[in-house]
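Handout, page 2. Input:
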Amino acid sequence: MPGLASALLAVTPPAGGSTTDPVSQGIVAAVIVAVFVLLALEKAHRVLVVFAAAALLWAVTYATPYRLISFEQAKDAIDLNVLFLLAGMMAIVGVLKTTGVFPWAVGRILAYARGRPPLIQSLVAWFTGVVSALADNVTTVIFVTPMAQEMAHRTRVPAAAYLLPVVMAANIGGTATLIGDPPNIMIGSGAGLSFMAFIEALAVPVVWMMLLLQVVSRRWYRTQLSPPPAPEAAVEPQVITDPALLRWALGITAVVFAGFATHSLTRMPVAVPALVGAGFLLVVQDVLYMRRHRPGRKDRVHGLLKVIEHEIEWPTLTFFAFLFIAVGAAVATGLIDTLAGGLLWLIETGRYAFGLDPLATLLFAALMICWVSGVASAVIDNIPFVAVSIPVVARLTTELPGDTVILWWALALGACLGGNGSAIGASANVTVLGLAEKGGTRISFAEFTRFGATVMALTLVVASGFLAGYVYLGGGVTTAIGLAGLPVAGVGLALGARRRRATGTASARPG
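Output:
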């Protein structure tokens, strides 16, 4: 989704375009706050809320002296790269569903976990986190969500107990690499940081955050995960219903992911391999069907229209489109630039007010960037915030002493982890909620935010510890200490899980 950054940065107010006075910025801020409040209260469907917000912004633009965002600017603010990426991957997943691969994979995982919900929750979350570090996290959750819902159904566990840890893991795991989350792509480009630099600096703290997520998830859903499922329902074997189509689908999907991984070399927007792969896969599905069946008039639309009409989550795509317009107004009127400038003022004020020495000043700046980025990214999309924060951080790196690369890691950690703070904090969140609702699971804004805000706060605390270690001990020493502690943490989690199982077994025995 890197195209969103360029799209937002391109929204510059031309002559006679957006007004950048305080009143214009205040109107846009009020609209965005109202959107957030209405989404939290769930008084209307989320698509209607953002639709009405965009309509209000246009009404003010064309009926008053305050030009917030013109129709032409709105077209630029809507990132087709994001929308087409989601549509293409949804279509690919829709074809994969017809092969029976998801129930088969679910059966294998359930058999390995012996139907134990806590272990299933951990396996799915870790799988999501690792894949999200290697591929786009939105693409990852599109694949994992239907599997998690199937597991929840067969283990008789509320789907939220699997889905919310999945989306948290997607945002956390995507923090670890340059390509895992769009803000990292922007930061890497703006700061000249390599793929390996991200891994060396952020992989270890991300693993610690994943361990923390595992602990929080099990405790949070302790009651829902405690009832043991019926063994015959949990491990019932499943078969692949269309092996030939599955082979084609897996091959095409591998090529699509190769396109994602090499986009920095090919300069090809990530939507292109997704759409090309979806197009080829739909053709293959149609050809295979026609070889096996005598075509009738209705058969010609058996695959294409079914996937397009029923598997692509159009309400979610519509939500993104109108949300982009609202964010585009914030960029065009200078609201986000004002917020980023406020961050610089806070850092400078703290530096002089507390009389901080050079290292303390650097740490204070890093913590401010991390936490402000985290809180802001929970409320507004993290991509435009990062876009306008990059020049601010670049300026700070020239003014502060010490190894100022830590400021870039602070921005990456805050922006990516802050996405967990609310249901609209990251693209992966909205995608999972939309797919879950389509599959019969409704997760409320409040339910998501209670769990997500907790995870966000705890992971930002871990990030703060990492930043402090980096400033005072150096990146290499901090990474070494983090690596050394991982085996101890792993053993502790294993012993704790064994003790909980033993306790549960004992309590289940008849008195």
